[in-house]
TrEMBL record:
InterPro entries: C/VIF1, Invertase/methylesterase_inhib, PCW_Enzyme_Inhibitor, Pectinesterase_inhib_dom. Residues 1-18 form the signal peptide. Pfam families: PMEI. Residues 28-171 form the Pectinesterase inhibitor domain. Keywords: Disulfide bond, Signal. This is Pectinesterase inhibitor domain-containing protein. SUPFAM superfamilies: Plant invertase/pectin methylesterase inhibitor (SSF101148). GO terms for molecular function: enzyme inhibitor activity. Belongs to the PMEI family.
Length: 176
């Protein structure tokens, strides 16, 4: 199962098994995750993403931001490769165009925005890093918008990348 799918499943299960899901993680250890995620518009996605990485337990806010940017990169790259596979098999001309544009948008995220965000974050330039995360969200939006009124075959992955970009941008906003 892909990371994105795991995250989505985690989100769906979270409400029903909120006690057992993180039973091994003490309240004190997750408090910073929860407090930090309250500053975002996607609280559940934020908590689930951070809890999927054991490094989050001992991380400060900057380290949480780094973990999120890395998760974003992994998700975006996975989506890019998935769209690449779809692109190879498509015959419908409109879909061919849509997928082609999505590949360009995702290449911008994976090859430009995220590497720049990581560099900026590591050197403490949080505003640049935040702008890159916002740009990543806009690229995911541009991909999605093309499919207006039609089935978007990787919409869940695209929405996860969009949401993670905005979560990351909000947390970078706390730092900067
Ligand atoms: C993206 O995924 C591919 C295939 O799994 C991998 O070879 C490549 O190194 C990844 N690129 C980045 C930037 O993570």
């Amino acid at each position: 199962m892909s990371l994105v799918a795991l995250l989505l499943v985690h989100l769906l299960l979270q409400s029903s098994i909120s006690c057992s899901a993180s039973a091994s993680v003490s309240k004190i250890e997750t408090r910073l995750i929860q407090e930090t995620c309250k500053h975002t518009d996607y609280y559940n996605l934020c908590v689930a993403s951070l809890e999927s990485d054991p490094r989050s337990l001992n991380a400060d806010v900057k380290e949480l931001a780094i973990i999120l940017v890395e998760l974003l990169q992994a998700n975006a790259n996975e989506t890019l490769w998935h769209v690449g596979d779809l692109f190879k098999k498509v015959s419908d001309p409109a879909l061919y165009r849509f997928y082609g544009t999505c590949i360009e948008e995702y290449r911008a995220i994976v090859e430009r925005q995220i590497p720049e965000a990581i560099d900026a974050l590591q050197s403490g330039d949080y505003m640049v890093s935040k702008k890159d995360a916002e740009a990543a969200a806009a690229h995911a939006d541009s991909c999605e918008e093309q499919f207006a009124g039609e089935t978007q075959p990787f919409s869940d992955q695209n929405k996860a990348v969009h949401g993670l970009s905005l979560v990351t941008s909000s947390i970078l906003g706390i730092l900067g």
